[in-house]
Amino acid sequence: MALPWRAEEAPDPRLLVLNEPLAVELGLDPASLHSPEGLRLLTGNLVPGGAAPVAQAYAGHQFGWYAPRLGDGRALLLGEITDVGGHLRDIHLKGSGPTPFARGDGQAAVGPMLREYVVSEAMHALGIPTTRSLAVVATGRPVYRETVLPGAVLTRVAGSHLRVGSFQYARATGDTSLLRRLADHAITRHHPGAAEAEHPYLALFQAVITAQASLVARWMLVGFVHGVMNTDNMTISGETIDYGPCAFMEAFDPATVYSSIDEGGRYAYGNQPVAAEWNLARLAEALLPLFHAEQEQAVALAVESLGTFRRRYSAAWLAGMRAKIGLRDGLGDDVASPLVDALPALLQESRVDHTSFFRSLGPAARGHADPARSLFPDPAAFDAWAERWRVLGPDADAMDRTNPAYIPRNHLVEEALAAATGGDLDPLERLLDAVTAPYDERPGLERYAAAAPEAFGPYRTFCGT
Questions:
Q1: 400 is catalytic
Q2: Which member of 72, 90, 105, 232 is catalytic?
């Protein structure tokens, strides 16, 4: 399921950004990564002793259509490293040149690689399980798209790169022993408790359901839109992966789509839980031979397990929403649920900025309702909701720790990427400073907490090619 491969030589590597805290966490010396040898390591041109870089094979449903052979077309798994906490982590490259799975030139441009760096590190700071970004290195090689762009390589860190599509690929080979070995590896790597269960492979599936229900609920709670929830972009670990046409929703609307290729809204903000459930059904199909020798019984077990996803997702989302509006523990769902359930329609009707609204609830709970009220053209509906909410004594300090002041605002991301593509890294560094400490509101960062100006217009993102 993997082919030995080497990264393409970067003719003139130049470090654009290095995640020094992550480097230390991995047991690496940040200073050495700034050196010429360090840059060669980060681009895959210097392979440490004992490492055997590979391009991984996987399949996937892309916008509902099955592709039997995808794989790391412009990516490379350099190897594994044990971090200072004793956890095994993958070191992976994007934009390192074409592999036998390539569907293009195997290159990546500076902008998309920096987008993944910014958004993945913001997600980590928000407490959302995610792959991490260690570095982005400009290669000195031009990349030809609609225009000529500077090329770059992203060095990514993950618990693993096992995807739903990895299991789809194994199942398609017809080799049940290969499928079983892959499942055993996933259990050992990510869900060791499943090994002790009466039915380990069913327990593995249930563990992935739980992880994905929690993950997607967290996306929804911060207004994150992944944009391309294909089965090859869903991990077995429950980490967010592959930040292509992703963005954070501003004006609340479940139909929000930012991806230029998602014309039907398959992966719109409000469809993400259903998309995750659909992907998990594809994982169940791949695992059927491991659930039971009899197909009918295997299907029944899969359906029963998959039926828990909506309950788990709803519980995670409701718990998160209770925290976002500061409801204290012990308050019954009969009181909390009506307040939570009223919010989507309230926000959608006035197209209220998602992040600004929840951040403004802290001041509102302290008696300063103007920031929240000012988000509504006619605040009467908010006033009625807030009157019921305040009676419950919401915890303002807890809300400030739950609702971020700063997210990667789409206009600021585009501003930073455009500047970096032109050689100016200052806007990128200022944006990273804000979004990697999202709950710590600071003077001078007001523009990082504000919605996009009207002149920014409708926002569209593109796959990170």
A1: no
A2: 232
